[in-house]
Amino acid sequence: MTVAKTTHAQGRPAVLITRLVGLLMFLGMIVLVGHWVTTQLALMREYGSDPQMPIWIMFVGAQLGYWLLAGGVVAGVLLLEKPHWRILMGVVLLLGWSYGISTERWKLQTRQQALAEARDSSTSPARLEQLLQFAVTLDDYEFDNRIATNPNTSPELMRKLYGRHHLGSLMILARSPKTPEDILLAMVDHELARVNQDLENEWIRKSLKLNPNLPEAIRQKLDEHEQPVTE
After folding, report:
1. Could you tell me if 17 and 39 lie in one domain?
2. Is residue 163 part of a domain?
3. Nearest alpha-carbon partner for 160 in 138, 188, 131
């Protein structure tokens, strides 16, 4: 009886240490989730008002549920005292979970910083070129729009933006006094010649008319393309 009590008493510190370590790991997981949520909110603020924001919020909620559920499973495995292989498995799962959520947070942070640079008037043309390549990978029209409005965007970069044919950036290029003449002419000859795109063409046409540097020859061609918008 005395030996059993002594063994039990000696085992208590080990159990307490194991639980304490598990608790600290669990708190660390909560901190990582908090950082992930904070980064998501920062990215949302950077985008600002967007018609797709409700869908984005639902998607973020689903992701948060996934990270919490996965983290709960990992924490549950870590708090198991025996056998020892379960604890080892919990540590491996914890490392994988931590790497996954940290990587996602890094991607979100990189995207938020890139968006901020795309609209910053001090961003160099060379950096804007890199940001456009980033935008191509993401297929994110917001990058295109911000690069199109940036005063440091070069004519060559504008030509690349035009080639991506995002309506928002086309409208920005159409009304920008810095847009090269060949892009404006291409809009009249190609964009406005598309069939079954009456409403989009009308938006581009109105944007072109707002361009203070629109050459007279292009303005005349624009008038020739004038067509009423069908409801």
Report:
1. yes
2. yes
3. 131
Residue type, 42: A
171 and 103, same structural domain?
no
| CA 25 – CA 38 distance, rounded (Å) | 20
Q: Determine contact, residues 187/174, Cβ cutoff 8 Å.
A: yes
Q: Could you count the other beta carbons within 10 Å of the beta carbon of residue 102?
A: 13
Q: Does any domain span residue 81?
A: yes
Cα–Cα dist 21/24, whole Å:
5
- Do 6 and 110 fall into the same domain? yes
- pLDDT, averaged across the chain: 83
Nearest-angstrom CA–CA distance, 161 and 210: 19
Distance CA 142, CA 178 (A): 20
Model-level pTM? 0.77
Mean pLDDT of 147-157: 94
Cis link prior to 13 (omega < 30° from 0)? no
pLDDT band of 41, cuts 50, 70, 90? very high
Q: How many domains does the chain have?
A: 2
Nearest CA-CA partner of 26 in 90, 99, 108 = 90
Q: Identify the domain containing residue 52 by its residue range.
A: 2-119
- Rounded Cα distance between 64 and 74, Å, is 15
Q: Cα 206 vs. chain centroid, distance in angstroms?
A: 30
